[in-house]
Amino acid sequence: MRWHGVIHRYRDYLPVTEKTPVITLQEGNTPLIRADRLGEALDSRVELFLKFEGANPTGSFKDRGMTVAISKAVEEKMTAVVCASTGNTSASASAYAARAGCRAYVVVPKGNVAMGKLSQALMHGARLIQLQGNFDEAFEIVKSVAEKFPIALVNSINPFRIEGQKTAAFEVCEQLERSPDRVFIPVGNAGNISAYWKGFREYREAGRIQNLPRMIGWQAEGAAPLVRGEVVKHPETVASAIRIGNPANWSMARAAIEESHGEIGLVSDAEILDAYRQVAQLEGVFCEPASAAAVAGLVKQCREGKIPRGAQVVCILTGHGLKDSEVALTLAPPLQPVEANIEAVVEAMGLN
Ligand code: AN7
Fold first, then answer.
1. Residue 124: CB partners within 8 Å, gap ≥ 6?
2. Which atom of ligand 1 is nearest to the CA of 185?
3. What is the pLDDT at residue 45?
4. What's the gap in Å between 206 CA and the centre of ligand 1?
5. Which residues contact 147 (CB under 8 A, 6 or more apart)?
6. What's the CA gap between 21 and 41, in Å, rounded?
7. Which of 95, 135, 236, 297 to pair with 188, CA 20 to 30 A apart?
8. pLDDT score recorded for residue 295
C-alpha cells in the first residue's frame, strides 16, 4: 500500500479537518531496526531496536511535526514561517515551506550548524540568517518576530509540531505490536520527548497498547540544563543539534519523565562519539552525533546495571549521519592516496 505521510495515516489523532490542505513529503513510516549486534555488545542483554528517523524526507524527525505545522499555517492563510534552529528544524521548515509556496526565514547560530543542514535550507530557498549568538538567543528573537509580524513560528512551542511528532510513538507501537519498556531519546529543546510521551499516552487511551514505556532522555554534558536544573548560559557539545541551554519545552519534558517513571541523564562528548561509531560499525546505521547521545545513554545505563535483562528498548535515532559528515571525517585517520597499481592497493589493504 502506498504511504501518504503522517497526516493521512494518523488523521484521527491529529488536529486537522477536511479543510486543512495537506502539505506532505510522505514523511514517517521510518524503519524500526533490530540491533542485535549492538545489543550484545552492551553490558546487559537487552532487546534493542533503533527507530531510524534519519530516513525521513529531509533526514530528521522534524518532518513529522513540520507537515502538521506547515499544513496548519497554510490553512490559517499564513504565507511565511520562521524558526530558530540548530539545523534540522531549519532544513525541514525550508523544505515544507518550499512545497507550500511559503517563504521561510530561518535563524541559526553562526558556526555550530552542520553543513548538510545549512545546504538544505539554502537549496530550498529559505532566507537564512546567521546569528552572532547561540540557539537560545536566536529562539528569543524569532519569538518576538512572530509576535510582531504575520509569520507563523514553527519551533516546537508551536503545538502542531508536537502533534505531528507524536506519530513516531504510534509507529513504534505498531512495529513492535506493543509498547516498548524503555525509550532512549536525545533531548535538546525537549519537544520530541514530550511528543513521544503524548503519543504513547494517547495510544493507551485508545486501547491500542496496554502499558506505557519509561522515557529516558539524554543531554550532552556541556548542554544539560534539564539534568542540572538550571539554564546553561554557554552550551557546548560536539552534538551541535542539541547545543541548547534553555529548552522551550522544559516543563512538558519534566512531566513526561516524571509521569513515565523515567529519567534524564547526561553523557560526555567522548561517550557520544563512541556510540556514534558503534551504531555505524555494528549495525550499519549512520546517525548524527545528537542521535548517538541516546545510544551513549543506553551504554552507560547498561554498564551501571540499571536495565533489567531482556528489557525491550528503543533508541530514537533522530537524524541522519550524512547531515554532519564533518564530524565523522574528523574521527577517521587522514586519507593517504596510494599509487594506481595493484601492489600499492594490496599493501594499503594490509594484505601482505
Ligand atoms: C538530530 O533543529 O532543536 O529535544 O533546531 O536535530 O525535540 O529539541 C534540533 C533538535 C535531537 C533534540 N536530535 O530534539 C533544531 C533542534 C536531533 C535534533 C534533537 C534535535 P528536541
1. 91, 94, 95, 97, 98, 104
2. 11
3. 87
4. 28
5. none
6. 47
7. 95
8. 98
Identify whether the C-beta of residue 170 lies closer than 8 Å to the C-beta of residue 10.
yes
Q: What average pLDDT is seen over the chain?
A: 97
* Residue 125 Rama label (left phi>0; alpha psi -120 to 50; beta): left
Cβ neighbors of 158 (< 8 A, separation 6 or more) are 65, 69, 152
pLDDT digits (tens, 9 = 90+) for 280-336: 999 999 999 999 999 999 999 999 999 999 999 999 999 999 999 999 999 988 889
CA distances from 96 to 13, 26, 172, 220 (A): 21, 11, 24, 29
Question: Rounded mean pLDDT of 38-63?
Answer: 96
Which one, of 332, 277, 296, 329, lies nearest residue 116 by Cα? 329
Phi, then psi, of 175 in degrees rounded to 5: -70, -35
Rounded Cα gap, residues 20 and 336, in angstroms: 55
Is any atom of ligand 1 closer than 6 Å to the C-beta of 86? yes
Ligand 1 atom index nearest CA of 189? 8
Integer Cα distance of 51 and 66 in angstroms: 19
Residues 6 or more apart whose CB falls under 8 angstroms from that of 51 comprise 30, 31, 32, 33, 168, 171, 172, 314, 315, 316, 317
pLDDT of residue 44: 86
